[in-house]
TrEMBL record:
Record protein name field: RNA helicase nonsense mRNA reducing factor (PNORF1)
Residue span(s) of domain DNA2/NAM7 helicase-like C-terminal: 100-284
Broad EC category: hydrolase
Keyword line: ATP-binding, Helicase, Hydrolase, Nucleotide-binding
Pfam families in the record: AAA_11, AAA_12
PANTHER family listed in its UniProt record: ATP-DEPENDENT RNA HELICASE ECM32-RELATED, DNA2/NAM7 HELICASE FAMILY
Top-level taxonomy: Eukaryota, Fungi, Fungi incertae sedis, Microsporidia, Pleistophoridae
CDD domains assigned to the protein according to its UniProt record, in alphabetical order: SF1_C_Upf1
Family membership noted in the UniProt record: Belongs to the DNA2/NAM7 helicase family.
Amino acid sequence: MQRMNLKNKKNTHKDRLRDYLRYSFVKDARVITCTCVTAGQELFKRFKFPYVLIDEAVQATEPLTLVPLIYSCRKLILVGDHKQLGPTILNKRAANAGLHVSLFERLIRLGVVPYLLTVQYRMHPVLCEWVSNTFYDGALVSAQYTHGAHVRYSAGTTAWFNLPMPTFFYVSRGKEELFVSGTSYLNKAEAQQCLAIIRHLKMNGVRETDVGIITPYEGQRVLLSRLTACEVANVDAFQGREKAFIIISLVRSNNINDIGFVSDRRRMCVALTRAKHGLFIVGNPGTFCKNKMWKELIAYYQGKGVLVEGEVEELRRCEVLGVTHFDFGNFVREVYHEQ
C-alpha cells in the first residue's frame, strides 16, 4: 500500500510538471496548431483564441468544427473544397440526419459566398484543364512555376508513351469479378494493365515511391497491393495528398452500365487531382459511358487523341467511341470484329 501511494505521488508530480510545461508553451506561443479534437482538452480552457483557422474544414463534421470556437472566437476562417469529399459518416441514420454536411458546406448552402483560391500549384496545366472547366467553372489557373517544373517530367511522359499529353485513358475490356468478401469488386485485366504502366515508368527512371494507384474498390486494392510495391489506396485515403504519377483503376466492367459509387462526383474530382506530372486512367468506356460526367471525360480524352488501347509500348488511339455520342451495341460489335 505504501509503495502504491509513493508511485501515485510520483505520477501526480510528473503529471503536474507535464501540465505546467504544456501551459508554458501555449502561453508563450502566438500560434497554436492542433486538431479540432485536441482543442477540447482542459489545457486550452485557460486561454482565449480570438482567431481560429480550420484547414480541411470540409472533412470535419459540424459539431467537431465548433470545438475550437468556444474560446472567445471572434473571427473564423474555414479552408477547404466542398467539391471534394466531406466527413466520413459510417452511421446511415446520422448521415441522413445531416451529420455528413460540414459547417463549410452548410454556410455555402445558406448563401455565404466563399473566397476562391484560383491558382493551383500541384498539377501540370494540362491535367488541370478538364478539372477546372468541369468542377470550378474554368476558374482554376496554373501557377507559372508549374509550367517550368513539369517540363522535364511531362516531356518525358509524352515521349515515353508517344502521346501528345502526359495523361491518357487506357481502354480495358477485362471483366469485373466479385471479391471474396462478397461486397467488393476486382478486375484482373485492369490490374495487369496498371502493372504494365508501372513497368514502363520504371524503365524510364521513375521510382515506385513516385507512383500511386487509386482504386475505388477494396478487392482491387488488395489484388494490386500483392502485385506491386507502389502505394495502392482508395480515393478517400488519397484526399489531401499527391504523387508524381497517379494510375486510376476504375474496376467496374459490365453490360448494364452499373458503376456503383464511382459515379460520385466528389470522388471523381479527388481522384483526378492527385497527380503532379502524369495521370493514367484504366477502365472500360463502354461501362462508364452512360454516366454524364464520365461520358464527358471519355469524350474529352478521345477528342485529345489520348483514349488509347494496345500494348503500353505501342499505344494506339481507340476509335471505337464517338466524341458526342456513344452506341454501346456498336461498341460491342466493333470489339468482337477486332477480335
